[in-house]
Amino acid sequence: MRLNITVLPGDGVGSEVTREAVRVLRTVLDLYGYEVSFEEHAIGGVAIRQFGTPLPDETKHACTNSHAVLLGAVGGPEFDSLPPGQRPESGLLALRQALGGFANLRPAIAYAAIADCSPLRPDILKGADILFVRELLGGIYFGEPRGFDASGAAAHNTMRYSETEIERVAHVAFRQARMRHRKVTSVDKANVLETSQLWRKTVTRVAREYAEIRLDHMYVDACAMRLITHPGSFDVVVTENLFGDILSDEAAVISGSLGMLASATIGGKVDLYEPVHGSAPDIAGRGIANPLGAIASAAMLLRHSAGLEQGAQDVEDAIREVLDKGFRTADLSPQHSADPQRGRTKRVVSTAEMGALVESTVADVVDRRRAYHAV
Ligand code: IPM
Ligand code: MN
Question: How confident is the model at residue 374 (pLDDT cuts 50, 70, 90)?
């Protein structure tokens, strides 16, 4: 099997973390006998500077003609004064539309080894493992009309959903729940918004096709609180675009750092993989960003685009093993944790060192499993 992957490093720490994700992908695909080619293209602020647009046609075509797209991050303070349609972020939104993936999977896992990086108590975090299924192509992000009034003193956006848009993402959530703990929490604001009333009614109807799955509904404000008081009570959370954006960042406190979170956008022509974190201009260029969110996104690529479930698990096991050994990037380092004492034995490593550690560990993981099966 031959895979063509388009790599869009983007802005800030994007290039630093995607480099490590590519390194791990290369090694794993090689171990599984896959041929792979990576082609790099510009998106976001880098593309604005080079081509005057955040999503050049060449980038778009490369993406639509590949098996999968791996993206770093977009955005930067120098573009803050541009209108929304010309900012780096609009390149990413246009790419999402062009690729057509409507279901954004964002796992939030409490890794035992870095529980001390979370402001939450270990007993609250224990065992938390949530999969957010965020609707990615609808809602207020794309609804028309939008814009500023002529005076510039007022502005408006439109939240809009159709049954079809809700149904298709609900199916993804229920199917994911089948492979997990068979529970779906649908999050909305049905006490105030019509789009949410349609959301709730439609998800409830789709649920009838999945008798083995438990469905409950929660208002987004209540969910925001319950996520940090009882993260272990969730399995799959399905929600609309903006709520999913906000709740998935909040869920970073479960993993201990935004740098840990991965995502996969599926359901379209070509699937898109990107860490949840942004371009982090404050630490860009220093080689200290956490590449594990990008590497975990690469694991999701192996699972969803390469059909390599075992390879995906190998990468996920390697991430766990490296953390268990006490290796951490600066965002996970003792000064960020609640208890500096416990941080003593940890070793702070750079972005590239962390990538290399996962790369060599994944090779060990595969070796060990193969040796085990050989006896
Ligand atoms: C994310 C990001 C994007 C979003 C931005 C960069 C457009 O915050 O992927 O969560 O809002 O979807
Ligand atoms: Mn976000």
Answer: confident
**Ligand with an atom nearest the CA of residue 293:** 1
Helix (H, G, I), strand (E, B) or coil at 314: helix
| Chain mean pLDDT for the chain | 95
Ligand 1 atom, smallest distance to 96 CA:
12
Q: How confident is the model at residue 372 (pLDDT cuts 50, 70, 90)?
A: confident
How far is it, in rounded angstroms, from Cα 284 to Cα 249?
Answer: 20
Phi, psi angles (nearest 5°) of residue 62: -60, -40
Mutate to test the pocket of ligand 1, among 69, 137, 245 (most ligand atoms within 8 A of CB): 245
89 in ligand 1 pocket by Cβ < 6 Å? yes
CA-CA distances (angstroms) from residue 344 to 34, 80, 256, 347, 369?
A: 41, 40, 17, 8, 32
How far apart are the CA of 374 and the centre of ligand 2, in A? 45
- The full DSSP string for 159-183 is ----HHHHHHHHHHHHHHHHTTTSE
Going from the Cα of 81 to the center of ligand 1, the distance in angstroms, rounded, reads 18
Identify which of 284, 228, 241 has the alpha carbon closest to the alpha carbon of residue 101.
241
CA 344 to ligand 2 centroid distance, Å: 32
Rg over CA atoms, the chain: 20
Closest ligand 1 atom to 136 CA: 12
Answer yes or no: is the C-beta of 245 below 6 A from any ligand 1 atom.
yes
Q: What is the pLDDT of residues 176-186, one digit of tens each?
A: 999 999 999 99
* Ligand 1 atom nearest 73 alpha carbon: 6
* Cα-Cα-Cα-Cα dihedral sign, residues 187, 189, 193, 198: positive
Residue type, 213: I
Q: What is the pTM of this model?
A: 0.95
Q: What is the pLDDT of residues 40-97, one digit of tens each?
A: 999 999 999 999 999 999 999 999 999 999 999 999 999 999 998 899 999 999 999 9
Distance from residue 220's CA to the centre of ligand 1 (Å): 18
Q: Is 136 in the pocket of ligand 1 (CB under 6 A)?
A: no
DSSP assignments along 91-149, one per residue: HHHHHHHHH---EEEEEEE--GGGGGGSSS-HHHHTT-EEEEEEE-SSGGGT-SS-EE-
